[in-house]
Amino acid sequence: MKIIIAGAGAVGTHLAKLLSRDDQDCTLIDEDDDRLAGLDGEYDIMTLQASPTSIKALREAGAQNADLFVGVTPDESRNMNACIIAHAMGAKKTVARIDNYEYLAPNLESFFNELGIDSLIYPEVLAAIDINNGLKMSWVRQRWDVHGGALVMLGVKLHEMCEILNRPLRELCGPDDPYHIVAIKRGSETIIPGGNDELRNLDMAFFMTTREYIPYIRKIAGKEHYADVKNVIVMGGGKTAVRVALTVPDYMNVKIIEMSEERCERLNTLLSTCDTMVIHGDGRDISLLEDEGIRNTQAFVAVTDNAETNILACLTAKRLGVRKTIAMVENLDYVSMAEELDIGTIINKKTIAASHIYQMMLDAEVNNMRSLMMLDSDVAEFTAAPGSPVTKKPVKALGLPFGMNIGGLVRHGEGMLVNGNSQIEAGDTVMVFCHEQNMKKMEKYFKTSSLW
């Protein structure tokens, strides 16, 4: 495929990384030569210093033959204009990064399609969804819902109270058991487990289960003593915080602490329709946190623009007794450090947005995809096409490459786990887990094919 990315910022460069591992014909455009410096050597891509709305530059980049054009500069209007121009030149599919929530209204989708913009990405909205999913389950580090939760993947940090430690998985995850362990993170190592592998203290285990067995997973993981989240303190009053406050479950009470007095006034206007308290102050101030009830708070969310500030604030909140902490960490160099410090849930907007865009270039039907930073792996929901290879043999006979795992499927709205004897049917939504660089290889199993 030929892909053009306009904007060599955080999202654009991460997307280029995802695409370069698949040997795609990718061109990255940016006006700032410093942003492009060295990228063509680091990744297998072409770079072009030019304006993303220049017709001459787009023609030079090959927009007329592009399968996918992506506008992810910091300027919403420039992204949309670039997509419109690229579409008019012949680009088959376009996606634009935006920062205006109004544009995401369902009734405007056809309007933007007619303009030549096939998809809109608002990273702060995607991040807020992840944050709210994390708040709903205080004992879970990462959660992935398939078909509205019919099938669920839960990332859980295990401690000594977990009752399934130090036993071979073949004794725990048989065909009739209500969960599978699809991956284990042990230190810096990612394990795609087999029957002889065991769970150990301090492992991050990824459980695949169905909705009704979530309480059971909580019990065997030793997490029943974790209080459900009712009170939440959010540090930082940016766009992500606004989306969190507007979409958080009604039973949660949210306080936002923001340092800028002017921004606090703006927040009071933006959040006038919801019961959110806005506090002017520094979320790192322990005395302020004490005054605002940190001791009676079940979750602390740090979403300022500074990764170090967010990490340190979460550490402070944990020291003050908060069980659930969530940190926005935009600098990928700090992600591993945050994991080692046991921060809790880590949110990175650029990887979320890049993964959302990446799924658009897959030939098979993919409903959702996410890069799991801590595992260097991807997870996606594939829909099995009629006549596709995955529907012709039981799972154990498919010959899936090493590092790929089918965790479960949803059929007619009902979630079910998958074992070696399972037969996938056309129309099933299948949860696929695989190491990086394998997702493109996996799609061939789900496309209609006459070769099998």
TrEMBL record:
<dbReference type="InterPro" id="IPR036291">
    <property type="entry name" value="NAD(P)-bd_dom_sf"/>
</dbReference>
<dbReference type="InterPro" id="IPR003148">
    <property type="entry name" value="RCK_N"/>
</dbReference>
<dbReference type="InterPro" id="IPR036721">
    <property type="entry name" value="RCK_C_sf"/>
</dbReference>
<feature type="domain" description="RCK C-terminal">
    <location>
        <begin position="141"/>
        <end position="223"/>
    </location>
</feature>
<dbReference type="InterPro" id="IPR006037">
    <property type="entry name" value="RCK_C"/>
</dbReference>
<keyword id="KW-0406">Ion transport</keyword>
<feature type="domain" description="RCK N-terminal">
    <location>
        <begin position="1"/>
        <end position="121"/>
    </location>
</feature>
<keyword id="KW-0630">Potassium</keyword>
<protein>
    <recommendedName>
        <fullName>Trk system potassium uptake protein TrkA</fullName>
    </recommendedName>
</protein>
<keyword id="KW-0520">NAD</keyword>
<keyword id="KW-0813">Transport</keyword>
<feature type="domain" description="RCK C-terminal">
    <location>
        <begin position="367"/>
        <end position="448"/>
    </location>
</feature>
<dbReference type="Pfam" id="PF02254">
    <property type="entry name" value="TrkA_N"/>
</dbReference>
<keyword id="KW-0633">Potassium transport</keyword>
<feature type="domain" description="RCK N-terminal">
    <location>
        <begin position="229"/>
        <end position="347"/>
    </location>
</feature>
<dbReference type="Pfam" id="PF02080">
    <property type="entry name" value="TrkA_C"/>
</dbReference>
<dbReference type="InterPro" id="IPR050721">
    <property type="entry name" value="Trk_Ktr_HKT_K-transport"/>
</dbReference>
<dbReference type="InterPro" id="IPR006036">
    <property type="entry name" value="K_uptake_TrkA"/>
</dbReference>
